[in-house]
Amino acid sequence: MIFMNHNEPYDDEYLQGILSSIKTIAMVGASPDKTKFSYGVLRVLSETGYDMIPVNPRPNLQEIRNLRVYPSLKAIDRPVDMVEVFRKSDDLYKITEEAIAINAKVLWAQIGVIDHDAAKLAEEAGLKVVMNRCPKIELFRPFWKPRLDLKI
Fold first, then answer.
1. What is the CB neighbour count within 10 angstroms for residue 18?
2. Fewer CB atoms inside 10 Å of the end CB: C or N, the chain?
3. Chain centroid to CA 132: how far?
4. What is the pTM of this model?
């Protein structure tokens, strides 16, 4: 089995392949706070057409952006293509185990979230893995071109 080196930049085709093949994303660590980065990512991915499933164990949190909130990955009542993680790196291994248990195809850890043991575990189970990246940024990155002709 070949394991990716997650310290190296990801190939554009690898990231594009993931983002074009998935439809349902469970976001672990989704927040109802509009000032949080996870809220903005949830909003953009939802508006882009992904079926977003917020995951947050906070009692009494029922909805974020009119989307039903689930207390855990195992509580989700439909197939999940990708688990996106907005949690501390220390939490990634346990979340990886849960992602494997629900038969997710991709484990995506947000910027700053890195655990190489979790990545190896996911890859051994057949999941594609991305760490320390943001799908919202990657989704639009191919269209970004610097404007070097602008005056400062």
1. 20
2. C
3. 10
4. 0.91
Residue reference for tokens 């910027």: 111
Rg (C-alpha) for the chain, rounded Å, is 16
Per-residue pLDDT reduced to its tens digit, 77-124: 999 999 999 999 999 999 999 999 999 999 999 999 999 999 999 999
What string of DSSP letters covers the chain? -----TTSPPPHHHHHHHHHH--EEEEET--S-TTSHHHHHHHHHHHHT-EEEEE---TT--EETTEE-BSSGGG--S--SEEEE-S-GGGHHHHHHHHHHTT-SEEEEPTT---HHHHHHHHHTT-EEE-S--HHHHHHGGG----TTS--
d(CA 67, CA 57): 15
Domains by residue range for the chain, with CATH? 12-142 (3.40.50.720)
pLDDT at position 149: 60
